[in-house]
Amino acid sequence: MLQRSKNGKNVVSALHARSNFGKLLRRVAEERKSLVIEKRGTPQAILMSIRDYVRLAAPKPEVLRRIGDESVRKGTGKLTSRQIDREIFASHPLKRTPRLSGPPAYGLQRTVFVLALTKPARMYVTQEILTEYRSVLARPALKIARGLQQQLMQLVKNRAQVVRAAYLLEVTSDPEDNKFLECADAARADYLITGNQRHFPRFWKNTKVITSREFVSLVAPHLPI
User: Fold this and answer.
1) Full-prediction pTM beyond 0.85?
2) What pLDDT was estimated at residue 91?
3) What whole-number distance in Å separates Cα of residue 162 and Cα of residue 164?
C-alpha cells in the first residue's frame, strides 16, 4: 500500500514493494516521483527514475539552468538546429556556419555537456576551441545574455583541462575541424564527440570519433535519450 509521510514523501513497505515491484517501477518511470521503501517503519531505500538518478550523480550547473530558462522565455528553445544554423549564416553570410548549433541548454547536447564535465569523465579543450565556443555563444540568433555567456565560459575553463596542440594537422575534410582533432591528439583522449562524423576519420590514433548518443550510451547506458 502506498502511503504519504509527514514530509510529503511517498512511502511503501518492503513487503508491498516486493509484491508490486513492476507496478511501482512503471509509476516511478512515468510520474517521475521517487518512492521511499521502509522496513518495519524505518526507511531503507529509495526507488527513483534513472533520469533523477543521473541528475543527482551529475547535477546540472546553475548557469545551464538559467540559459535554459532564458531560451524558453525568448523563444529560442523552440528552434531546431537547422533553424539556428540558418539564422546564424544569414546574419554572417561571408562566414562558414559554426559546428556548435546552440547553447548546451536542452536535450542531448546538454546531457553530453554535463556528463563530460563530471568525474570520472574529463573534458579537454585548446585555446582555439575556447575562442570558437565564445564566438558561437555570442551569436545574436541565440539571444544569450552576455553575463550568462561569461559564466558558461568560466564553467568550461574551471572544469575542462586546457591542452596545447603539439603540431598542426590536415586530416579532416573541413579544415576548420582540425583543431578538435589536434586537441584530442594532444590530450590522448579516448573519445572525440561530434555531430559531423563525416568530417572526421573514425579513429585517430587511440581516439575514437563518436556521436553524442554513443557517448551517453557509454557513460550513462540506462539514461533514456
Assistant:
1) no
2) 41
3) 7
Distance CA 186, CA 110 (A): 25
Q: 75: which DSSP letter?
A: T
Q: Give the span between the Cα atoms of 78 and 69, in whole angstroms.
A: 12
* Cell numbers standing for residue 192: 572525440
- For residues 201 and 197, give the distance between their C-alpha atoms in angstroms, rounded to a whole number: 8
**How far apart, in whole angstroms, are the C-alpha atoms of residue 225 and residue 212?**
10
**Run of H or E residues at 124:** strand 124-125
Q: Is the dihedral of CA 75, 79, 81, 83 positive or negative?
A: negative
Q: Which domains does the chain have, with CATH numbers?
A: 3-53 (3.40.1620.10), 59-219 (3.40.50)
Residue 92 banded pLDDT, cuts 50, 70, 90:
very low
Average pLDDT in the chain: 77
Spatial separation of the C-alpha atoms in residues 171 and 152, rounded to whole Å? 30
Contact between 88 and 97 under an 8 Å Cβ cutoff? The reply is yes
